Structure formats: structure tokens, C-alpha cells
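Protein in question filed below.

…
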Amino acid sequence: MSLKYEECRNNLDQFVRRFQTLSASRNEATTRLQLIDTLFLECLGWSRDQVVCEESYGGEYADYTFYTFRPALIVEAKREGDYFELPAGTTRLEHSIPSLMRDYPRLSDALRHVADYCQPRGVPYGAVTNGHQVVAFVATRVDGSPALEGKALVFASPSIMLAHFLDLWQALSRYGVEENRLKFRLIGGLPELPRKLSATITKYPGLKLRNTLQTDLQILSEIVIEDLTRSPELEPEFLKECYCQSGALSQYALTSKAVLAARYAALFDSSQSGPTTVPATSKSGTSLELLAVGLARRPIPC
């Protein structure tokens, strides 16, 4: 179980006191064991089962890969003697990555290595640390900007980490990484997504009537289907016969013909000659007589 915020703050306080009493130039392996492991595991709440050391991808080995539900943070470890000093009078935590790379060549190489590790793996965040200094940045960006042309969060000493522990926690703790706090601080929210192409279509969704034939078919279908719903005795047969697995169009035509024949037989007895059939449409459009008959039984809207 990951350590909680206040306990991690106390651990960092002890880490700072212990660091101030020790004066040693550690090599990279010792720096990782005595400083970096302590910083991330005891002061930032990561557990050992959430970190993989020397993970390989494409023949490249990342010093530390931290996992949430996926690989989320890669940390490049440097020996304690590889340090940098920020310009005098600087108090802010956010710094331009191009400026850091221009002023500190060794830090520049480390930042490039971390970005090269993160981007092929799809890992969003990268950091460089010598155990008592940390530089963290968004190493894989999706907003069209190069990762090494953005900003980084810089903690230049253990005392600065302790004084700005909330910033350190939000950026590099297990919980802060999972909630993408570093991205929101250095980049901001995601850019607004472009509108869908359908949003540029007038009156979408809707019907686009392209010719008179479609208009006539729409009018006729509305008349026939609405009349069927007003004849409960025909509706079950209509639904049963029209929704079929194959031959739908031909069967629909036959069913419509049978329905019309049944209706005409019910309207006229065998002694009468029956109705006279006329075309539903002509060159001038839908038959006015058909429209009048079809709409005669419908209620008049108020």
C-alpha cells in the first residue's frame, strides 16, 4: 500500500536532514540505491511492485519505469556529482526546457535520453534526477508541440523539494501521475476538439430530397403506412409479412397488393364492379384525388 501524503512529507524531511549531514560523491549505482530509491519509494508514495528497473525496449534500457495501470513515468538516474545550478535570484519552479538544455550540456543529454525512452513506449512523463535534484516534464505530447520545446518543473535541491512538497507530490507521486497533474500544470487542459464534419451540414440529421420521385414515394409511403396503423386488423399481417429475411422488396410489394385487394373486397360486395384503379403519380406529381382520399379520415389539427 502506498504511503500517504503526510507520512511521505515527514520522510522527505528526514531525507533532507540526512542528506545535509552526509558529504559524499556517489557513483550512479550508489546514488540510485541511497538517494533515488528513497526519494520515490519513501517520499513520493510509490511501492516496489510499481517500478521496473532497466526495462528494455528496442535495445534501450530505461533506469526506472513507474507504472500506474500502464507505464506512466520514466526516470533517468545520474550520479550525484552531475548537478546544475539555476541562475541567481531564480525562485520559480517552472523553467523553459530549451534554456536548461542550452545552459547545462549534461542535463541536455539526459533530457534527450528520457524523451527518446518515453516516446517509442508511449510513456507520457519523464524525469531526470541525481537524487537531490529533479527535472520533470511531459515527454510525450499530443498537442502538436515538440516535448523538448516546452516547460519543465525543476527542484534544484532537497530543501526546495521540502519547501514545495505539494508541487513535488502533485507532479511525481503515484497519485499525481495517475491524475495527470504535471500535464495540467505545464501544458494546461487538452485543446478543444474540432467540430464533427456533420456539424457543418445544414439541418443535420434530416431528409435530403433530391428529386420528385423520392418526394412522391415519401408521400405515398406516409399515406399507406399511416392508414395501416388505423386498421388494427391489418397491422399484424402487415408487420409479419413485411419484415422478412430475404426478398424483402418483392414480398413487400406482394403484401401491399394483397392488403389493398382485401380492403377493396371489404368495401365492395361481389355484386358491384369494384373500384377503378388510376395511377398514383403522373407527370404533374402525386394524384390529388389520392391525397384527398388518404387525408379525408385524418383529424384536422387545431
In short: The chain is about 45% helix and 15% strand.
